[in-house]
Amino acid sequence: MRDFSEMAGELDSHRNSIGAIPTLKTGADVTSPKGAGIGIISSRGVETDQWCVSWADGSRKDHPSHELTPCSPRTVQRPKPPLKFLSYEDMENLSEPDWLIDGLIMEQTSALLFGKSNSFKSFLAIDMACSIATGDIRDGWHGHDITDGWPVLYVATEGALGVAKQRIPGWYDAHDVSRNRRNDVVLYPQEIALDDENAVNDLVRSCAINCSEREETTEWEDPAHSFKLVVIDIFGASMMGPETSDETARAWVRNINHIMRTMKCAVLTVAHTGWADSTRARMHTHFWGSFDTRLIAEGDKGSLTTVLKVDRHKDADSSGEWGFRLDPITLADGQKTTLVPRLCEDVETKQKRRVSGKPAIALQALSEALIQDGRTISGPNYPNRPIVSLNQWRIMCDRHGLSDSENAEAQRKAFGRAKNTLLDKGLIKQFDDNVWKVSDDD
Q1: Which end of the chain has fewer CB within 10 Å, C or N?
Q2: CA nearest 151: which of 234, 216, 215?
Q3: CA pair distance 109, 391, nearest whole angstrom
Q4: Region 185-193 average pLDDT
Q5: Backbone angles phi, psi at 197, to 5 degrees
Q6: What's the mean pLDDT in 85-102?
Q7: Buried b or exposed e, range 318-352, using 16+ CB within 10 angstroms
Q8: Taking a C-beta distance cutoff of 8 angstroms, is the pair 289, 280 a contact?
């Protein structure tokens, strides 16, 4: 009779002839009769004597040995990752960003156009929108190249009737655009909740269907390139939540990015400046920092002029300013009128230094402090005119009632805000703890 060692040797020889049979061990590939597909053993429980398996569907479960069957690694299919990462070579092969309007707005980016009331910012937004829509038949935007003519969606969250019946038709009339080329600016005449995912999905799907109708195709599922630009006018009516809410801001920004990615378009948002600070839009800081481009309009209602400036481009030279005269236009019906921006070299593009509200009170207080306590200091960092200390100026501001509060911290903050506004406007200068007024010649 053969002993056990002899029989084991024959079994090993047989195994070697047909190929090794995989065993259950950490890292082994296994299948399950319960239909979970192929998985990998990640660990073995010492107390339970069960195997923890990571399955291809993303689940992790413990199994007794009899439920698992080892399989060859060659049968394992690597799952497709849900997220796509870019290698360095992928980054190198990305296409260079193109300007939608040269020097003003880049394709597939977000832009903000902000300004005070009566700064004519909506007229400028319509001017940009209509220029893009007719870019293939006109000489760009006031001499600046436009990539090509392509439809634009204008979302008028307020004043839609005036936009539809006066401003857009008036622009077309002023630029002699034929009637058969007036269909490339499409209007959505009501508010929209861009902080609501369902509302944004409805917008994107409507854009895709609108494009299929224009192009007379059955491709109504893909919204890509349905519009070259989407204009949101005005910001405050484009959300359900409050403008100051962090939650609203994050949802709004996330959905704007979704619109840009899926529609492959740029988004231009029109907004008012803040009540106390005319140098930025009235919005949560998360909104403010999210835009790729910020443009500011500084208008003068009395002279019907406005200046458009690049406040910032994230990834391009942030220079650029244009002066416009707003020409009154009578529409073809002979009754309705509107205004159309015309580039005008005679419009002064230097930033206006006029201030109002608390900064104006602080400026008046500085003038009186300079009369009462002003002194001159010799040195390369000081002007040849009177200066005062910040404390002397702050005391005079308190006498003028710069802050309505009796709280010392509130008074300090009110003074700081007013001082920063005057510094930003270039009306004052500061060195160390001393301050002085800037003359018109500085």
Answers
A1: N
A2: 215
A3: 45
A4: 97
A5: -60, -40
A6: 91
A7: eebebbbbbeebebeeeeeebbbbeeeeebeeeee
A8: no
pLDDT of residue 442: 47
Q: Beta strands 152-156 and 185-188: pairing type?
A: parallel
The 3-state DSSP class for residue 343 equals: strand
3-state secondary structure (DSSP) of residue 144? strand
pLDDT score at 427:
87
270 touches 234 (CB < 8 A): yes
Measured CA to CA, the distance from residue 211 to residue 220 in angstroms comes to 7
Q: Report residue 34's pLDDT band, with 50, 70 and 90 as the boundaries.
A: low
pLDDT of 8 > 70? The answer is: no
Q: Tokens for 238?
A: 């484009």
Long-range contacts of 388-391 (CB under 8 A, 24+ apart): 388/434, 388/435, 388/436, 389/433, 389/434, 389/435, 390/419, 390/430, 390/433, 390/434, 390/435, 391/433
Q: Which two tokens stand for residue 280?
A: 């930025």
Question: What is the pTM assigned to this prediction?
Answer: 0.65
CA dist., res. 391 & res. 399, Å (int): 13
